[in-house]
Specification:
Collagenase (Catalytic Domain), binds zinc ion, alpha/beta, 8 helices
């Protein structure tokens, strides 16, 4: 099982750390709690972004046996990416470019973290058990947005489909198998990523938006039944009082 260390670096928006810390997986285990660190440097890029070199110097990267570190930040990264491999076995995820897009769609920030953990775990297994800066992210991704873990999401709002009920598309599955990731591990990942979804309340709202007529009929039936039950109980109570 892979070991994943998750940390935050600098101020980041509130998110449900417990959900990530307690995530049940047969593919990886989250090492300890998500610890907070400060970001002691200023941005050094031409457009106020933090370069990989800057982050690499300022983010703790303790060696992890059979695994890697994910550092969550809230700043602009090189080339407007929201996630980059900045050193061997050190990945950065920035909420900065994606927070508003996900919030507008009622998708919790934890979903993107979990989606990327699965994507990098399989990337790690298919790259001789390492995540190396020398491996291009383009080796894994595709430009077409399919709701797949490996959607490139060059247009950032395309991140939405892969943060709610994500899949591993058939092309990516084949690529992983060729890279000697076991079918067992791929099956585990496929099953577990089904749990990455919106909360039930927002899920129901989405369903009702998609099926407006059916929702209207169901709500009308439920309202009628409730109304009948309330009237029935009311009549019993009134009947008891009169007798
Ligand atoms: Zn894919």
């Amino acid at each position: 099982m892979l070991n994943i260390k998750v940390i935050t670096v600098g101020h980041v928006p509130r998110f449900n750390k417990k959900k990530i810390e307690k995530w049940k997986s047969k593919l990886f285990k989250i090492n300890g709690n998500i610890e907070d660190h400060t970001l002691p440097s200023n941005s050094d890029g031409c457009n106020w972004e933090f370069t990989d070199e800057n982050l690499k110097t300022n983010i703790p990267n303790n060696k992890i046996e059979f695994g890697f570190t994910i550092a969550i930040v809230n700043c602009s990264l090189e080339q407007d990416y929201y996630s980059r491999i900045i050193n061997d076995n050190l990945v950065v995820i920035s909420f900065y470019p994606i927070q508003q897009i996900l919030e507008d769609q009622n998708i919790p920030l934890e979903n993107v973290v979990l989606r990327l953990i699965y994507a990098y775990c399989l990337g790690y297994l298919s790259s001789n058990e390492q995540i190396s800066k020398s491996i291009s992210i383009r080796n894994f991704t595709h430009d077409e947005t399919k709701g797949c873990l490996y959607d490139m999401t060059g247009i950032v709002r395309d991140i939405v489909p892969s943060c709610h009920n994500p899949i591993i598309c058939s092309d990516c599955l084949e690529k992983m198998k060729k890279n000697r990731v076991s079918i067992d591990k791929l099956n585990i990942a496929q099953n577990e990523i089904k749990k990455i979804k919106k909360e039930l309340f927002y899920n129901l709202i989405d369903i009702s938006k998609k099926h407006r007529v059916a929702s209207f009929i169901i709500i009308t039936i439920i309202t009628s039944i409730l109304s009948y039950i309330i009237t029935f109980i009311f009549n019993i109570i009134i009947g008891l009082k009169i007798s």
